[in-house]
Amino acid sequence: MSLEDLYRQGRLKQHKTSAKEIKELLQVVDRDLKDAEIKGLSADRKFATAYNAALGLATISLYCKGYRPHGLGQHYTVFQAMKESMGAGFFELADYFNACRVKRNVIDYDRAGGISKGETEKLLKEARHFREITIHWLQSNHPRFLCADRG
User: Fold this and answer.
1) CA-CA distance, 80 to 89, in Å (whole number)?
2) Sign for the pseudo-dihedral over CA of 76, 71, 5, 57
3) Are 125 and 133 in contact (CB under 8 A)?
4) Using the 8-state DSSP alphabet, how is residue 102 labeled?
5) Distances (CA, A) of 18 to 21, 33, 63, 78, 110
6) 50-106, pLDDT tens digit by residue?
7) Phi, psi of 13 (to 5 degrees)
8) Is 73 left (phi over 0), alpha (psi -120 to 50) or beta?
C-alpha cells in the first residue's frame, strides 16, 4: 500500500521533520537499545524496549518522507509505511517487526512471561542492525536530516 493510499485512508498525516527531530529520535532509539540490555530486566521488558527502538527507526523513515502516523493502529501503520518509505528490500524486515508488534501487545496488555530469551536476543540483534541500515539509508537518501555528529 502506498503512502498516498495510507494518507487518503486517514492513517497518515503530513509532517515536516528536521535534523533536530531525527537526532532526538535517534537518541531515543539509542537509549532503548542500551536499556534492552539491562541485566535483571525480564525478557518481556527487554523485548518491548527493543521493539520500541525498531518502531522509532521505522518512524524516522516515515518522517523523512513527509508523514507521521495518525489514528488507530499507528504502530501497524508505521511498519506498513516502512515498506513504501524504505523500499521493497525492507518488506521482510517490516513484516518481522510487525509480528513483534503483535507479541509486544500480548506482553504489554494480556499476560506476562510470553517472550523467550531467544526471541528477545533476536529482536535486539535485528533492531541494532536496523539502526545501522537506517543511518546508511539517511546518508544515501536524506543526508540533510542526519547531523554530522551521528553515525
Assistant:
1) 13
2) negative
3) no
4) H
5) 5, 23, 9, 18, 37
6) 999 999 999 999 999 999 999 999 999 999 999 999 988 999 999 999 999 999 999
7) -125, 155
8) left
Give the type of residue at 62.
Answer: L
Rounded to an integer, what distance in angstroms lies between the CA atom of residue 123 and that of residue 128? Answer: 9
Which residue is associated with the grid cell 509486544?
104
Confidence at residue 1, expressed as pLDDT on a 0 to 100 scale: 82
In the chain, the amino acid numbered 140 is S
Single-letter amino acid, residue 34: K
Which residues are within 8 A (CB) of 138 and not within 5 positions of it... i.e. 6 or more apart? Answer: 22, 60, 64, 145, 146
Is there a contact between 5 and 131 (Cβ–Cβ < 8 Å)? no
CATH number, domain 3-145, options 3.40.50.300, 1.10.260.40, 1.20.120.330, 1.25.40.10: 1.20.120.330
The string of pLDDT tens digits covering residues 109-140 is 999 999 999 999 999 999 999 999 999 999 99
HEC sequence for 40-73: CCCHHHHHHHHHHHHHHHHHHHHHHCCEEECCCC
Domain ranges of the chain: 3-145
Read off φ and ψ for residue 100, nearest 5 degrees: -65, -35
